[in-house]
Design a protein that fits this description.
The chain has 452 residues and is of the alpha+beta class. The protein has helices at 6-16, 37-56, 72-77, 80-83, 147-152, 154-161, 206-223, 271-275, 321-332, 368-382, 397-407, 417-422, 440-451; strands at residues 19-21, 33-35, 61-64, 69-71, 85-90, 97-99, 120-123, 126-129, 139-142, 167-176, 191-201, 231-235, 247-255, 258-269, 301-302, 309-310, 313-320, 333-337, 343-347, 358-362, 389-391, 411-415, 424-429, 435-439. It is 30% helix and 28% strand. The structure holds adenosine-5'-triphosphate.
């Protein structure tokens, strides 16, 4: 099941506190969103799942958390100053601006006029000044991708970990692009998060590794609850490849507004490490003085046997966190008709992504014994480290179940009078709506089995 429209998802996100418009009290800021109490949990859980699979489950990848503010030279040598642009057209009639490659025909989507300017490149990077003097020398950028600082830290990580090829550096963090027309909720925004791996390999093995990572990433998205029928692979046509790419395969997802990119997996060759390295492509680097006087580092590895230097090739799986959140929400959103004819909205998130793992509900909100037992149970269950367990004292169990269905809480645990006698509680399952009586001593096993 999935949502029928973006509007349904936007409404749920606002109503239940997943996503809000940023700066809303002043009318918002276009292409910028804030994540609410449940959104931050879902987002953190998605990022944690990525980190677990990329870093913890492998021994050939290390993590990094680098700065957002970036020296302009990094983005000059990487080619972004010159080429990180989208084609912009102006409508001469209504003055609106559009991305030329998003137009249908040569017509203004705003007013229908055909009086448009020729496309011209518009650089997507946000520029700022560092320090109190606003001159050319103080210009810095908010990074447009997390990747560049992985490249510029390549030697640091190599030296401090003694990693050997093939190995990767993983990073999750914010990226900023001044998109011409942000749209489709959190799909295309100006401030977003990326989960990027740069996986460095021997030149010549790059194509096989590229295939391997496409396969891995497709499987990972399915582990996040995305139906394989809603995913497809798109080999990006040569004329549309980014300036650094030899080949790119996009993982496309059937979003409510259409099939679009969720993640790009690019073969960036030795382009970036080469660009930031002295004596760029010369593999026989022996000179002590950089030929490229802007960078003082050799971003390369030296072979043990013949002491030759190699600039590794890099395979980059780059996924958007916000697009990931939108995709898993869309997949999980289900409206069911119950046997009595009423409707129920349920968010069938994978348990590891659910913002709240379990809610502990006292049957009577004013009964001291029941409330105290429920509070203590919450504290015990939190010790499992599975994520957020919520104590919720509203006294209305039926309503609580409905609300937790709608936000994807896998289990609700009700503490009642009987609990005080025999230490049993009612455990209700989100998906089956089945209720079972479980001894509190067995709850740990139930949670481990269903949530972990
Ligand atoms: P698009 O063609 O949709 O503009 P892109 O090819 O420029 O995307 P990449 O540079 O490959 O995107 O970035 C890697 C990932 O970062 C994308 O797959 C996407 O998930 C995410 N991403 C890129 N731009 C945005 C954006 N404006 N809003 C949200 N996520 C984004």
């Amino acid at each position: 099941m999935s949502a029928q429209s973006m509007e349904e998802l936007v409404a749920l996100c606002k109503r239940r506190g997943f996503v809000y418009q940023a700066s809303e009290v002043y009318g918002g800021l276009q292409g910028v969103y804030d994540y609410g109490p449940l959104g931050v949990e879902l987002k953190n859980n998605l990022k944690a799942a990525w980190w677990r699979s990329m870093v913890y489950e492998r021994d050939d990848v290390e993590g990094l958390d680098s700065a957002i503010l970036t020296n302009a030279k990094v983005l000059r040598y990487s080619g972004h100053e010159e080429t990180f642009a989208d084609p912009l057209v102006d409508c001469r009639k209504c003055k609106a601006r559009w991305r030329a490659d998003h137009l249908e025909g040569e017509t203004c989507p705003g007013c229908g006029s055909r009086d448009l300017t020729d496309p011209r490149p518009f650089n997507l990077m946000f520029k700022t000044n560092v320090g109190p003097v606003e001159d050319g020398a103080s210009i810095a950028y908010l990074r447009p991708e997390t990747a560049q600082s992985i490249f510029t830290n390549f030697k640091n990580v190599l030296d401090s970990t003694s990693a050997k090829l093939p190995f990767g550096i993983a990073q999750i963090g914010k990226a900023f692009r001044n998109e011409i027309t942000p749209r489709n909720f959190i799909f295309r925004v100006r401030e977003f998060e990326q989960m990027e791996l740069e996986f460095f390999v021997e030149p010549g093995t790059d194509e096989a590794w590229h295939d391997e990572w496409v396969h891995e990433r497709l499987a990972w998205w399915q582990d996040q609850g995305i139906n394989g029928n809603n995913l497809e692979l798109l080999r990006v046509p040569e004329e549309e490849l980014a300036h650094y790419s030899k080949a790119t395969v996009d993982v496309m997802y059937r979003f409510p507004h259409g099939v679009e990119e969720l993640e790009g997996i690019a073969n960036r060759t030795d382009f970036d490490l080469g660009a930031h390295t002295k004596n760029q492509r010369d593999l026989d680097i022996t000179a002590a003085v950089p030929a490229n006087d802007e960078s003082n580092t050799r971003l390369a590895v030296q072979r043990q046997d013949d002491k030759r230097w190699t600039v590794p090739f890099v395979i980059e799986p780059s996924a958007g966190v916000d697009r990931g959140v939108l995709a898993v929400l869309n997949e999980a959103y289900t409206v069911e008709t119950l046997p009595n004819g009423s409707k129920r909205t349920v968010l069938s998130l994978q348990p590891h992504l659910a913002p709240i793992k379990a809610a502990v509900l006292p049957l009577k909100r004013n009964h001291d014994g029941i409330v105290a037992r429920a509070r203590a149970l919450k504290a015990d269950l939190m010790k499992l480290g599975l994520g957020r367990v919520l104590f919720e004292n509203t006294g209305n169990i039926g309503k609580g179940y409905r609300r937790h269905d709608e936000v994807g809480t896998p289990l609700c645990i009700t503490v009642d009078f009987q609990t005080l006698d025999d230490e049993t509680v009612t455990v209700r399952d989100r998906d089956t709506m089945q209720q079972e009586r479980v001894n509190t001593s067995g709850l740990v096993d139930v949670l481990r089995e269903r949530i972990a």
